[in-house]
């Protein structure tokens, strides 16, 4: 019999399973796919990512890069799989989606002490359990969790970007390059750029704002007694581009279409705006539209996005779409370790607890897996220092105002202020990073947190 059941085979669930198994627990991980699919997943592989294929920057002086540095120091299973599946992406960590998911599935399946069962869990198991069911938790399990916690769910809407065939892009108008020419030295650059002049930009914005949007699906509609955002309220970190464009005509030129650091080799000048497309597979046959989360209808996506120079004949292999993300109100329901306030042998991890971003989800899975193993061995829980990005994220999830709680990505605003204030934003990032890495190193040495990991 398993010592621990984990519900959900996403980033957080897989990380939690590996961390617990490496500490001697017998783990059964339940994943409902491929027998029961969600509205956005395409395969049955574990840890399939459906939004961007980028984990964000690797630069330590930036929040996301610091978080990944911390995870690597803690022997994160998912980070190792991501590094082994990486694609050229300048200073960012991007992965081949299929290679990454297959790597996670095969390695976790071969980890001693881990059993993977493809079955939908419709109610929270009674024994020791980590729920990492993700943002598209099934209705039955959602109801079970809601009844158990005694608190209604909150929702926000997340959107994914389209993917097109790179060979269908007109290279007489597009070009490879990286901002400030800081890409892979062995290539022409890590991003495919489609520049727009001012007239082309305004024409695109007008069409985008007026385009037809997708009506919410029945499963995305609120239940009668569930508080929901209004139709115009979205999670700020995942705004559909049509919502952003409707705010102000220059919004996209300062956001996903910003031309900073890009020089058009044909003119030698900066374009008025530029769409960047990121490599999405090892063969470089697919590219995704960076920052182009959208809720336009499929036909409108083809019509509107083909107004961008170079995409006139683009072949779409996946359209952008918006879907409901589900998460609990962590400050009401959880302790800082991810443990439920209502039931001691129940932990949560990943987006269901309100973590956000790939690395953030991995971090929450790591914390849950480690502390569940300590719980079952009657050992004291480990709370990461607030000076670390992992500790700061977990602290935010529990101690923020529950009345205004919403998911949060890694950012330096979560960290305690520096003893010696630094004026420069860049230098401040280095100072935060240096302190965090030093603090985590001391924490690892003092707690022996890595001693069970090979």
Care to describe what's here?
By secondary structure, the protein is α/β, with parallel strands linked by helices. Helices cover 31% and strands 15% of the residues. It has a six-stranded antiparallel sheet with strand order 10-11-12-13-9-14. The longest helix has 23 residues, at 425-447.
Salient structural properties:
six-stranded antiparallel β-sheet, five-stranded parallel β-sheet, 31% helix, 16 strands, single chain, 2 domains, alpha/beta, FAD/NAD(P)-binding domain
What does the secondary structure layout of this molecule look like, with pairings?
Blueprint: E1 4-7, H1 11-21, E2 27-31, E3 54-57, H2 63-73, H3 77-84, E4 86-87, E5 92-95, H4 97-109, E6 114-118, E7 129-131, H5 139-149, E8 154-160, E9 163-165, E10 175-177, E11 191-196, H6 198-210, H7 241-247, E12 273-279, E13 286-289, H8 298-305, E14 316-318, E15 321-327, H9 330-333, E16 346-348, H10 358-376, H11 389-399, H12 425-447
Helix pairs in contact: 1-10, 2-10, 2-12
SSE order, one letter for each helix or strand: EHEEHHEEHEEHEEEEHHEEHEEHEHHH
Tell me the domain tally.
2
CATH class of the largest domain reads Alpha Beta
CATH-defined topology of the largest domain:
FAD/NAD(P)-binding domain
Short description:
The protein is α/β, with parallel strands linked by helices and 454 residues long. It has 12 helices and 16 strands.
């Amino acid at each position: 019999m398993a010592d621990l059941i984990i519900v959900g085979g996403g980033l957080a669930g897989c990380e939690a399973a590996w961390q617990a198994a490496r500490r001697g627990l017998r783990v059964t991980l339940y994943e409902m796919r491929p027998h029961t699919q969600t509205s956005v997943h395409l395969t049955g592989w574990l840890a399939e990512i459906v939004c961007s294929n980028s984990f964000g920057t690797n630069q330590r002086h930036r929040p996301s890069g610091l978080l990944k540095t911390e995870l690597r120091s803690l022997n994160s299973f998912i980070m190792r799989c991501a590094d082994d599946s990486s694609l050229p992406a300048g200073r960012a960590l991007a992965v081949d989606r299929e290679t990454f998911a297959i790597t996670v599935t095969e390695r976790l399946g071969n980890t001693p002490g881990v059993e993977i069962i493809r079955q939908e869990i419709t109610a929270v198991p009674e024994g020791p359990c980590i729920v990492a069911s993700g943002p598209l938790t099934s209705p039955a399990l959602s109801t079970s969790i809601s009844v158990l916690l005694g608190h209604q769910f909150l929702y926000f809407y997340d959107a994914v970007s389209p993917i097109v065939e790179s060979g269908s892009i007109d290279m007489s108008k597009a070009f490879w390059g990286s901002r400030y020419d800081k890409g892979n030295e062995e290539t022409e650059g890590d991003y495919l750029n489609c520049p727009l002049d001012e007239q082309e930009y305004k024409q695109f914005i007008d069409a985008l704002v007026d385009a037809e949007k997708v009506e919410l699906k029945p499963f995305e509609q609120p239940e009668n007694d569930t508080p929901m955002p209004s139709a115009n309220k979205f999670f700020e970190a995942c705004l559909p581009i049509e919502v952003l464009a409707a705010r102000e005509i220059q919004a996209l030129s300062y956001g996903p279409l910003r031309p900073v650091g890009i020089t058009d080799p044909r003119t030698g000048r900066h374009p008025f705006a530029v769409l960047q497309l990121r490599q999405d597979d090892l063969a470089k046959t697919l590219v995704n539209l960076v920052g182009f989360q959208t809720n336009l209808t499929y036909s409108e996506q083809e019509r509107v996005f083909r107004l961008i120079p170079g995409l006139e004949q683009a072949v779409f292999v996946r359209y952008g779409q918006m879907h409901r993300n589900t998460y609990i109100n962590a400050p009401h329901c959880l302790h800082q370790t991810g443990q439920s306030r209502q039931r001691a042998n129940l932990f949560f991890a990943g987006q269901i607890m309100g973590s956000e971003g790939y690395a953030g989800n991995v971090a929450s899975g790591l914390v849950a897996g480690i502390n569940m193993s300590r719980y079952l061995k009657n050992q004291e829980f480990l709370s990461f220092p607030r000076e670390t990005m992992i500790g700061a994220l977990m602290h935010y999830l529990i101690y923020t105002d529950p009345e205004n709680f919403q998911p949060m990505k890694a950012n330096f605003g979560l960290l305690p202020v520096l003893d010696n204030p630094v004026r420069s934003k860049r230098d401040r990032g280095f100072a935060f990073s240096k302190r965090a890495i030093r603090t985590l190193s001391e924490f690892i040495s003092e707690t022996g947190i890595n001693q069970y990991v090979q």
